[in-house]
Amino acid sequence: MRHTAIDPFQTSRFADVGLQLLKAAGVEQLVVHHAELSELRLPAMVGRADRFDFAFVDGSHRFDAVFVDLFYLSRLLVPGAVVVLDDLQLPSVARAAAFYVNNLEWTIEECSTSPEHHWIALRTSSVPDERPFGHFVDF
Question: Which of 8, 114, 122, 133 has the fewest CB atoms within 10 Å, i.e. is most exposed?
Fold first, then answer.
């Protein structure tokens, strides 16, 4: 089993601390780190037909970036997989999640209750996306 991490700022903002901790723990061989933006790496993964059982999203908190991450993850995650979104207290993150719940039949598995910091666990649909061409539910 391998863990894939996408973090373009691991070196520039975090002095590679995360990678150093993985090495110190002796598990660096289990992690594939991509030092690039998710909006560039995720489409490449779709092109390679990569598949994942779980995703944790805590990147850019702008609506468009979160939406695009979820768009590509919807193609990378196996049916019925779980994706956790961090920082749900931000309107941009909450709105992006709402689109996938209202339009792609993703379900809310769990939501944090902390007033300061929110996250949400979503389960992707277990059935293929067969929406008609003009389908849209406001979110």
Answer: 133
The C-alpha atoms of residue 10 and residue 38 are separated, in whole angstroms, by 13
Give residue limits of the domains in the chain: 1-36, 51-139
Residue 48 burial (CB count, 10 A) = 9
Q: Give domain 51-139's CATH superfamily.
A: Vaccinia Virus protein VP39 (3.40.50.150)
- Continuous H helices in 29-115: 38-47, 63-76, 91-103
What are the tens digits of pLDDT across the range 27-80? 999 999 999 999 999 999 999 999 999 999 999 999 999 999 999 999 999 999
The whole-angstrom separation of Cα 129 and Cα 80 is 12
Supply 91's token pair.
Answer: 């309107």
